[in-house]
Amino acid sequence: MMGYGNFDQNTAGIHFRLRARAFIVAESQNGPRIAFVNLDAGMASQLVTIKVLERLSKRFGNIYNEDNIAISGTHTHAGPGGYMQYVLYSVTSLGFVHQSFDAIVTAIEMSILQAHQNLKSGSIFISSGDLDNAGVNRSPTAYLCNPRDERERYARDVDTLMTLLNFVDGKSQKSIGAFTWFATHGTSMSNNNTLISGDNKGAAARFFEDWFTSISTNSTTFDAQGTHKHKTNIHTLIAKALTIKATGGQPCNQTSSQGFKVRKNDGSRFVGAFCQSNVGDASPNVLGAFCTDTGLPCGSSIHSSCNGNDQLCIGRGPGYPDEIKSTKIIGERQYLKAVDLFMSAKEQLTGKIDYRHVYLNFTNIEVKLAGNKTAKTCPAGLGPGFAAGTTDGPGAFGFQQGDKKINEFWKRVRDHLKKPSDYQVNCQKPKPVLLSTGEMFFPYAWAPAIVPLQILRIGNLILLSVPGEFTTMSGRRLREAVKQTLISNSNGEFKNDTHVVIAGLTNTYSQYISTPEEYGQQRYEAASTLYGPHTLSAYIQEFNKLAESMAKGRKTVTKGPSPPDLSSVQLTLLPDPTGESPPPGVKFGDMKHDISVPKSGFFSKGDKPSAVFWSPNPRYDLLTEGTYAVVEMLQGEKWVPAYDDDDFCLIFKWSVDDKSTNGLATLEWEVPKSASKGVYRFRHFGSSKKTIGSTTEYFTGASSAFTVS
Length: 709
Hints:
Layout lengths: L12 E2 L5 E7 L6 E7 L6 H15 L8 E5 L24 H20 L4 E9 L5 E2 L2 H4 L4 H4 L9 E9 L5 E7 L17 H19 L16 H10 L27 E5 L6 E2 L4 E4 L21 E4 L6 H22 L2 E2 L4 E9 L4 E4 L3 E4 L7 H5 L19 H11 L3 H7 L21 E9 L2 E5 L3 E2 L1 H17 L10 E5 L8 E2 L2 H6 L2 H4 L7 H18 L38 E3 L16 E5 L14 E7 L2 E7 L5 E7 L6 E7 L8 E11 L8 E6 L3 E3 L1
Parallel strand pairs: 3-4, 8-9, 18-20, 19-21
Antiparallel strand pairs: 1-26, 2-3, 5-7, 5-13, 6-10, 7-8, 11-12, 14-17, 15-16, 17-18, 22-23, 23-27, 24-25, 24-28, 26-27, 28-29, 28-30
């Protein structure tokens, strides 16, 4: 899996499906346009971006290109790895995984294609407001290193602002989608989790989409501003939103020839996306960090450790100790704030569609500092605080956040891999260099040198596509600098009402960006700031150049060197499944353990019925746009799909039977409050091959019926 860097964290099922959600905005049929993709993944990948652009070029020519497309990761830490092209980010997934990579590239391509096919005349409304209870700063001591007068301008040490766009069809005056940006980490699911999950932002998207579908089904309509036409007030609607499909999903009403649900969007399905922002130090584990051995708070030490052991200091989400409950709660908080903003969005975006994009070699940028001083960025490098991890997911034993020394043992290990040059050691100070990834090229590059910077404009909204994780204060400084540059160079076209939003982890990934003051403390975020103490200053300087170009109407910018395509040198150590057969006397899809019915004879809301099927490795077919698991409801004499593995309440787990070494699929359903009384059963879908080269065969199996009362 991708996010925590944990070798032992291998996927073993699905909490709910990952998605790519896209919007396209164009001035006219042949006018300027931008495409923005919100991807349920740990982060964007340079290689994914390259291959998506190649595919789109074959479909559309130069309509969509590196300048006007942004691909932004939600930063879920419960998605698959193996889709990044640099060594550091593929080590823990045992290299490149073609299956994961291809699924991600295809999802992005299809989301853009569907958005392109559904282009129609319409309007966009914007709204913003504060969400106070969905994030805390996980490095508060580092934040306190920032100047007092700067900190006193803000009420919190995390960004609480959520910004929402409501897309409204010009003909029907109905909303067709809404995208939000808000900063909180995708770490509600822990580093022990083995289920594929969109984490709290993916959950928020599902809840928002299900809510809108339910409201629309009940004949509720909205005017062009997204305002509810009936007299029901917003507080009633939010209360209603809490109960409508908050833990369940919409009935499956369209199936493929194999019985798998197809969710292709023909333009009629509302798309709700929850995008990432300056998330660097913002954690969803809002209860704080506690020592697992004593149960006491870890304290305010810069090391975030318990008696010197960083692995014992763990952040707690609001549903502690249930991480799925924490995911649900943080997801609901974002979704309910989005409903509030959606219903109150009155300000219409007007003006130009515009964009600027540049590639920069970030390892050697000359940065102009105050007092006519200059400095340079460095080759990518990581400090020992990086190896310590965070309170969201601790790293290796023997390291602590804030470490400014490396012991002799780890120095020898480091030097065996690559001893940092004297230039690198001096450039990165006060960070001690644990891994000089910018100087490591075996078997291929360990970290990016060339990164993209991009500004997208939709009228008076500016989206800053940043290829990493800006800390709270770093993001604030970048937004303010760009806004001031736009206003001072535009002859009145940009004003104080211009909205500047950071779209984090976009187009590629270059880890963290801390302020110079935070860099001095060398907690995890600073130790992971690749290009040295002046990284943020370089970003602000170069984004200001793009902003000035946009404000002055200069269409051309120096593009810079293109990033490498390393697809031809990727190493893959994770083997594909080699073929398998069911145990003697059974076939795939047969039950190993049928439903265990309670003594009462029925299940109630909140119960968790489950069933276990004989099932081979799920990787023979990912069943994209399909499902491994379905809960069917008996309607008359017909079984009708009601929930599937894209729903928050139905979990698909896969494991190996200890006695036979054959695969087992477990389907577990938490009966939601919204479930109708009636008769249900589980159905499992899967695929298999007898040998590596044989034809894929599909199967299905069903459990006994059971009653929900």
